[in-house]
Write a structure and sequence with these properties.
Layout (H helix, E strand, L loop, with lengths): L2 H14 L2 H40 L20 H4 L9 E3 L7 H9 L6 E3 L7 E3 L1 E3 L5 H11 L7 E5 L5 H9 L4 E6 L2 H13 L6 E5 L6 H6 L2 E5 L8 H14 L6 E5 L2 H5 L12 E3 L3 H12 L13 E5 L1
Parallel strand pairs: 1-4, 5-6, 5-8, 6-7, 8-9
Antiparallel strand pairs: 2-3, 9-11, 10-11
Helix pairs in contact: 2-6, 5-6, 5-11
């Protein structure tokens, strides 16, 4: 939201306030302005740091951000992926949502470094749009999670399962007060990339990366106040392994009140796997409508935007 839109939104807000509350509200803004400016300045610094990290990682990984040491399963290997429209191997492009936002993708396509379409019948003029798949949270999703979706995280422990390039870790550090932020990633190369970023930006006081299989980290999961799982297994493991891990997570993340952030939703994730997990005895889906609306207004300038990718993020609490 730019200055003019912000000004308009502020005036609309004032006009909607009860008459008796307008003066007290304006006085509060007047006396709180220094703190508000400080908060905005901290936010701007955080945004600048995130942008620098994006450029650092862009310079060392390919456009797809898929490393040679990673095994990415082809679309269609699971029942769920068979349901995705136009999801043949040739129709999919891996684009990291943290490293490249929509504007970046447009620039890459315009410069010829990336294509928006694929050829349906090789040698013909029949083309169709590519399906873009990301294995990371975008910057706007990170801001939504840590500024709007989750409560104050002071003194809390966050565990990001399958942290890959580390965007959730950096976002948690810069946009929340979480005291301990732990990424669990089993790929050595990805762990090294994260560790280099952590050391370069002096994040060691609150971020730690554990290079291990999450199924070997039962004690870690049991200490977590927040567990984040972003598109973590679907393109990396066959169905049988996914079922096994979800059953492990079900038996391990059991502390009442633990928050679980998921994308896609747990319902969509488990439905094709037949994991035999009774969600009604494990997780409660939180109503985040107000938080989503507030975030959309602040991040996109309206309550519902075609550009918003926030509806893909779901919040649950352990019963």
């Amino acid at each position: 939201m730019d200055f003019l839109r912000g000004q308009e939104a502020f005036l609309n807000l004032i006009s909607s306030v009860e008459k008796d509350s307008v003066i007290p509200l304006l006085k509060w803004i007047r006396y709180s302005s220094e703190d508000l400016i400080k908060d905005a300045s901290r936010s701007n610094e955080a945004d600048k740091t995130i942008e620098q990290i994006r450029h650092d990682i862009q310079s060392i990984v390919s456009l797809s951000a898929v490393l040679p040491s990673e095994v990415i399963l082809s679309p269609g290997h699971s029942k769920k992926q068979l349901k995705i429209d136009n999801c043949a191997v040739s129709s999919v492009a891996h684009v990291d949502g943290f490293l490249y936002n929509d504007e970046d993708v447009d620039e890459l396509c315009d410069s010829g470094k990336m294509s928006r379409n694929y050829c349906i019948d090789c040698g013909s003029h029949q083309v169709a749009p590519l399906t873009f798949i990301s294995h990371s949270t975008s910057v706007t999703q990170m801001k939504y999670i840590f500024r709007y979706l989750l409560p104050d995280l002071s003194g809390k422990i966050i565990v990001d399962v399958g942290s890959r390039l580390g965007p959730v870790l950096y976002g948690a550090y810069l946009y929340s007060n979480a005291s301990s932020i732990i990424g669990c990633e089993m790929n050595d190369e990805l762990c090294l990339i994260q560790q280099n970023i952590i050391e370069k930006y002096h994040f060691q006081d609150r971020i730690k990366v554990i290079c291990a299989d999450i199924m070997m980290q039962e004690d870690l999961l049991k200490t977590a106040d927040v567990v984040i799982l972003n598109n973590v297994f679907e393109y990396f493991l066959p169905d049988d392994d996914q079922r096994r891990i979800w059953q492990f997570l079900r038996s391990t993340i059991v502390h009442s009140g633990t928050l679980v952030v998921l994308s896609p939703s747990i319902e969509d994730t488990l439905e094709p796997l037949d994991a035999k997990i009774d969600l009604t005895k494990w997780l409660r889906k939180e109503n985040v409508t107000d938080r989503l609306t507030e975030a959309n207004w602040n991040l996109f300038g309206c309550d519902e935007s075609d550009d918003s990718d926030l509806h893909d993020i779901h919040l649950y609490s352990v019963l």
